[in-house]
Structure formats: C-alpha cells, structure tokens
Design goal:
This protein is of the alpha/beta class. The chain has two domains: 101 residues, 2-Layer Sandwich (Enolase-like, domain 1), CATH 3.30.390.10; 266 residues, TIM Barrel. 36% of the residues lie in helices and 18% in strands. The longest helix is centred in the N-terminal third of the chain and has 22 residues. The chain is globular and about 60 Å long. It starts with a strand and ends with a strand. The structure holds magnesium ion. Magnesium ion binds next to loops.
C-alpha cells in the first residue's frame, strides 16, 4: 500500500478549510485536515511545496516512521504550521490503514472504551434573556453540557458572543472574511465583576446538575485568573478554559494554588512539550489540543496517555475551524482512550456539510464517530470547487487606551 498521489484541496464553504488527500497505488483514499484558522495558505504551501514530494512512493502503513521522518527531517521543529501539516499526513494515513483493515479507526486504536462521547455546546447572549434562550435552544438540541459566554457591560464586542440580531441565532463564527483582522475591545475589571453574576443567574435558572463551562480565552494575568477561579467556585464549573496565555506554563501553578475550579488549556499548543510541566506537576485537568493542530492521532495518543498517568482528561478542541475530517479524527480517539473527558461540538453549517460527507452522529447529547471503515468522512471534490478560498481572520483586542491585548 504505497502512496501514489497526494493533493491539497483548499475550499471555503462556510469558512476556509485545507484538506490533504492521499491516494494509494491500490486506489484507497485517505483524508487529513490541515486547516489553521487565519493562516490556511501557509499550511497548504508547507504541504504542497515541501511534504507532498516526500510522500510519493512511501509505504502508507508506516505511520510512526512517516511521523518521525517529517518531524525530524525538517530540522526545524514544532510550531503550528509544521504540526498542522504533519497532523494532516498522520490522520490521512490512519484513515487509509483503517480503510485497508475494513474497520472504523477507533477499532485500530484499541476499540471503544464507552458507548458515546458527552459533547458540550456553545450558548451566548448579549444579555441574560438572550443567554437563557440560547441555553434552552442547546438543551432542546440535545446538549447536556453547555459553554456559557456573554457580553460584558462597557465592552462593545467580545469573544464568544453571537453577532447582532438578524444572524442565525445559533451560529457564531469568530473568523471574519476580510482583508484584515477585525478589532474588538477589552476591559478586564469589567469582565471580572460581571462573569460571576452571570453564572449565579444561570445556576439559579437551570439548577445545580447542568455541567457549565467558560472560556476566558487567554485574556487574564495569573493573579486575575486565580481570582476568577475563586469567584466561580460556588457555581461548580466543569472547567475554566485558557485562563492565561500559557506560553508560561508556570502561570498555571499560581492559578492552581488559589482555586479548585477545574482548568482546561491547550487549543493553541502543538506538541506534548507544551504540556510537560502542566501535566507532570498536575496544574491542569483537561487537555484542549486538537488532533489537527498537535501532530495528528499519533502525537495526540501519546500526549493523552501521558496525561492519563496524572488523571488528566481529554477535552479535544472542536470549533468550526476543525473540519469534519479533523472532528472525526478527534471522535475516534475520544472513543478509544480511557481518559476521555468531554468533546466540544460547535456544529458546522450546511455548506460545510455539503462538501464533507459525514457519518458521525449526535444523539441525546452524545457524539459517536460511526462505523464506516476509516474516519467515516469523505470530501466531495466537485462540491469543494464551488467554494474558492476567501481571506478570513480571527479578531484581535485593544484596551480602551489603544493597547493591543490578548484576544
Ligand atoms: Mg477555547
């Protein structure tokens, strides 16, 4: 089973996606997600110019060897572009191996450790009424765990809150199609005052059982994050996510020493090394990496097995910039590992679902990757050609005085 052709497909149905297609000499097709939100063409070039020529003629069964070859032979290690490219190759090779075996991928990873994967949905609102409506809508859709984000009085535009009325009520897409990133604003003191009152109101309305999550999105200093974690303790959060920009892993030590609110981090990380201190010193509770941004199934399995030794669980990143191929890769891994925690599920739009034919299911709050051989996702190349790439970028933040701030 040698690789005969490798092609990179860039398509933009609801948003931009980069997909790697590997075809073997016996005609099997494997798919890998190479999407890096806002930097899509960099990964497409990395693959097309530097990786595709290396893949032709390689034995598609040799997944570990190919991973090590791509990681070590480039000399330059790590980084989001490199690791997204390696992940795309790795996931496509696992798709091929599982198709060759005639099994869903999770069977090759050890088989199912559970019947389904608890998923959390996103709820948001510009005020309490909108937020409560949004939570009720998610509950009606079957979600049994909810991420809560709200507007903050005094801040005009904030991460995680849907666009003003007129848009579809459940859709939130942070990356905007434009030539430059949109500007949002930020006020930490206003945020820290407001968020505990939101969770108090949500608990009073929806009761103590519902698992609630919140994404701080890297915007606090360690001592501010410590305070927020303490202030949210009465509302029993499932997790507080990305409370600081965690290039400095020791920041989490300070947060941890002040609060029992569980901590999740890592959607912008791309290797096991980014977690070394966080895991060994038990500074976090959930690993937020995406399979697609962290070197694929091969690397994520090692990372999550390392985390398992410390009772740290998975919380695989599942926003809309992870394509259905990348989502499926995460779901197969979720189903197989023992230390599954929860899976984010942001739900793709109709155009994306037209381009990517999927077999994973969402039933009564639980995701399942399905039982088709491989990943269970196929890209419709004819449909993909209808949606050419359009530049789109994530927003960025400025403080009131104009200083650029973490978004
Ligand atoms: Mg996040």
């Amino acid at each position: 089973m040698n690789i005969a052709t490798a092609a990179v497909i860039v398509t933009s149905p609801d948003r931009n996606f980069v997909t790697l297609k590997l075809t073997t000499d016996d005609g099997l097709v494997g798919w890998g997600d190479a999407t890096l939100n806002g930097r899509e063409l960099s990964v497409a070039s990395y693959l097309t110019d530097h990786v595709v020529p290396l893949l032709i003629g390689r034995d598609a069964h040799r997944i570990e060897d190919t991973w090590q070859f791509l990681y070590r032979s480039a000399y330059w290690r790590r980084g989001p572009v490199t690791m997204a490219a390696i992940a795309a190759v790795d996931v496509a090779l696992w798709d091929l191996k599982a198709k060759a075996a005639g099994m869903p991928l999770y069977q090759l990873l050890g088989g199912a450790s559970r019947n389904g994967l608890m998923a959390y949905g996103h709820a948001s609102g510009r005020d309490q009424e909108e937020l409560f409506d949004s939570i009720r809508l998610r509950l009606d859709q079957g979600f049994r765990s909810i991420r809560v984000q709200t507007s903050i009085p005094g801040i005009d535009a904030v991460y995680g809150v849907r666009a003003p009325a007129g848009d579809e009520p459940t859709r939130y897409e942070p990356a905007q199609r434009s030539a430059q990133p949109m500007e949002e604003d930020w006020d930490t003191r206003a945020y820290l005052r407001h968020i505990p009152t939101v969770f108090e109101a949500v608990r009073n309305e929806f009761g103590p059982e519902l698992p609630l999550l919140h994404d701080v999105h890297h915007r606090l200093t360690p001592i501010q994050a410590a305070r927020l974690g303490k202030d949210l303790e009465p509302y029993d959060l499932f997790w507080m996510e990305d409370c600081t920009p965690a290039e400095n892993q020791d920041a989490l030590r300070l947060v941890r020493s002040h609060t029992t609110t569980p901590l999740a981090i890592g959607e912008v990380f791309n290797t096991i090394w980014d977690y070394q201190t966080l895991i060994k010193d038990q500074l976090i509770d959930y690993v937020r990496s995406a399979v697609t941004h962290t070197g694929g199934i091969t690397a994520m399995r090692k990372l999550l097995d390392y985390a398992a030794q410390y009772q740290i669980k998975s919380g695989i990143h599942g926003p809309t910039d992870i394509s259905p191929v990348g989502m499926a890769a995460g779901l197969h891994l979720d189903l197989a590992i023992h230390n599954f925690g929860i899976q984010e599920y942001m739900q793709h739009g109709d155009l994306t679902n037209e381009v990517f034919r999927q077999t994973f299911t969402f039933t009564k709050g639980y995701l399942h990757p399905g039982n088709e051989p491989g990943l269970g996702v196929e890209l419709d190349e004819e449909a993909a050609t209808k949606y050419p790439y359009k530049p789109a970028y994530l927003p960025y933040n400025r403080l009131k005085d104009g200083t650029v701030h973490d978004w």
